[in-house]
Amino acid sequence: MYAKLFYFGQKARHFWMEKDRDIHQREWLKGVWDHSDTTFAWLFKEIRRVLKYSYRRVKRFCDENPALSEYFNDESNGTDFIAQVMQESPKKRQIIRDYYLHLLHTYGRNGIHKATLLVSASSDLRVASSFRKDGAENVVLYMFSPAPYTKYCVSSRFRPKDIGVVMDAGLPLYKRNSGIYPGQKEYGFRGAIFPHLIFGVYDQATDDFIVNPHLLAMNGHSMENLYRNGIRVEQNQFENMIKKTGFHRFVIVDESGLYHGQDKGQE
To answer: Which of 43, 81, 83, 191 is most buried by a 10 A CB count?
Structure first.
């Protein structure tokens, strides 16, 4: 189990839970690569839907983020939202998409479930332990994100300068450390928690910590670049090996930081 984790990482539900037929039947968020105007139109509509809930948590979030709440509650801003985003480069659009998708993601099934492109993580061990489902392995992944953080994850816990892409696009930010469940101290890893970001796994049942073997294999020169590039993982056979797994599709990040998705059977 750990060998596969340290080679493939932990993928978002979109990659192992969603069926192809479900994706083909919709026009929005068709993959991790999707930064289309249709996806942003859907995203605006979904955030507007969630912010209309009368639950106390949602109301508190709206009170803490009046500018964002007012923006998305005004249906006429949908056109502006799409226009502002579509002026940005594909890479920046993907970051903006995931920044707002994180708001839906943190609200669970009330926000987005199978279609999510994000993997939940937390800076609080107790919260991270609770993310596992009943019957799942009783383990906690220890990971990190090299800077710039938005290359790999999004969160309300970032400082404004860390999410400058959203701010520079003239779009509303949510207040730092706010959220519908702010106590979860959550980070949304984009597409996957990649193996080169995993230090190791803590097995809560046996009280063992299993270090990522790729980390142990790194030499001194590679270790110096750890904070910029992560752990070096040799994945020359990745596309052949992933076909033997239960994943329906996979994600690749190119050198520029642009995300690409591919179905497992696609050449």
So the answer is: 191
